[in-house]
Each structure stands twice: as C-alpha cells, then as structure tokens.
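Q: What does the predicted 3D structure of Magnesium transporter look like?
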Amino acid sequence: MIDCAAREKAMVINLEFIRAIVTAEEVLLLDPLMQEVLPFVDQLRQHLPLRSLVGGNGEHGGDSNGVKQDGSPGDQVPCLNEATGAEHELPFEFQVLEVGLEAVCSTLDSSVADLERRAIPVLDELTKNVSTKNLERVRSLKSDLTRLLARVQKVRDEIEHLLDDNEDMAHLYLTRKQAQNQQVEALMTSAASNSIVPAGASLPRLNSSFRRSVSIATSIYLDNDVEDLEMLLEAYFMQLDGIRNRILSVREYIDDTEDYVNIQLDNQRNELIQLQLTLTIASFGIAVNTFIAGAFAMNIPCHFYDIADGSFFWPFVGGTSSGCFVISVVLLGYAWWKKLLGP
C-alpha cells in the first residue's frame, strides 16, 4: 500500500519501505532498524536538526518501534522560488518528505540499474543459444521487471494523485496549520483577557471585533498556495517517470529479443518442413520403385520370364529406377518453382 495522507496534526507517509508519521516538529519512524530503512535514517540525521534524538544518559531517544527526531517549526531549509528567483524556507514536514522520496527514488534507481546489468548478458546469450536454461533466466528477468515496474508505478501514481488535488496538498502544510492554530489561540487568549468590561453596552462590539480577528487569522493560512509542495512533487514525479521509462526500455528490449528468437525458431521450423518435404518426395520415388519390384516379384504369368539368358533384368531395373528418380527430380523442381524449397 502506497500512501501519503494528511491528518489533523500529522502526515502519514507509507512509501515502499518508509513508514513514518510526520508532524510540524518531529518524525516518528516504524522499524527504523530495518536494513532498507537505515539509509533513510542516516539521511534524516544529516539533513534535519537533531534535538531529542539522544537522551541525557547518552542513549538514543524513542523505543525499539520508532525513532524520534525533532525540529521546531522554524527549522527550515531554503527553497528557490522560480517566479521571483528568491529563496524561501521549506517547512520541516516537506524536508522529511523530500528525504523520503529521495531515498525511495535512489532505491528504485539502483534496482533498475541492477536489472539493466542483468538483462543485457542474459538476452545476448539467449540470441546465441535458445536453451531451456536461458529461457528460464529470461522468465525470471521478466518477473523481476514486472514487480519493479509495479513498485515504481504505485509511487508515481500516488504523487500524481497528490498533484491533481490542490486541496490534499494544502492539508499537508502542517507548519502553516500549526501557525494558524497558534495565532487563533493567541487571539482567543487576548480576547479572554479583555473580556471584563464595566458596561454591557460595549460587549457586542467586543464580540464582533473578536470574530473579525479570528476570521482574518483563519483566512491567512487556509489558502491553496501549494507551489512549494507542487515543485517538490513534480521534481520527483519526473524522476520516477524517467525510472519508469528505463524499465519500459528494458521490457521493450526483452520483447524485441523474444521476437528475434521467434523469428529464428520459425526459420528453423521452415527448414525442418523443407527437409520433411524433400524426404517425402524421395520416399515417394523409392515407394514407386519398390511397388514395381514387388509387382514383378509375384508368381504371375509374364512373357519377360521366358527370356532364358536374363539379359532383360538389368535394363529393366535400371529403367524403372531411373524413371522413379526422374519423377522425384520433377517433383523437387516443382516444389522449388513454387518456392516451397530453397532460401
């Protein structure tokens, strides 16, 4: 299951081997000690500020089920704005998402590179020698390719789904929503501290001012400005699209090799059919000669038997054999003329 969904105060990431819960201040990983997840953890430690990762006794914070890594909402990295050419800050949650997408894309790219290295010698060997062993290797290669293509397609489809829905992307702005909530709470606290008034006539005016302030604070952050996330997702979408195209190129190479092998097998089958036709024509000539010999071998009256010196035997045998040979040659010539034989 590939998913990247927003919750009220967190973002749930489920991409390949990466399963994490990201808030505006921290990221919680599931099974951080897995072999596939360790490079992602190292990249997080390199790219993100560390706070409570190490406890006071020198041990790592968190438990065996997750790694906790904190950063404040202000812990952001610069991101270039294409419209203005100026740098602005990328929120903490998008830093985590970027590192996760980078780790997933790197793993998929490495898998595709291994697949390409395996495919070329296997397919070249198949073109030279069509054997059961080589066919089994190609079958295994196609199975791995199909599974890898499905993995890439799932991640690519999830990113495409996010890019198609600006509302879903807006919900992923956890830092922005947290700042909005903090501002609303500050306004409510300020309004509560000023709620004691001497006269009841000014209370409606105070409530109206409070509602207007809350409305302004809410409208500041509930917009659909998702340019940062859109640029981030588009970059990795293009990278995944390139990986997918490489897999499709390998599959096309396999299909071309299979077509070439089928052509070779068809050619060999045609050669066998031609050989079978030649043997059939030769067998027909021999069968005619055998029929004539068998007919004269029967004990029936015939004036040829009256020739005592046997001078007629060899000319007769030579004549019938030559006649059968001529019949066979004529049939072979006809088959050649009809292009049933020959190259």
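A (community wiki): The structure tokens above were generated from the sequence. The chain has three domains: 3-173+226-265, 174-221, 266-337. Residues 29 and 116 are 32 Å apart (CA to CA).
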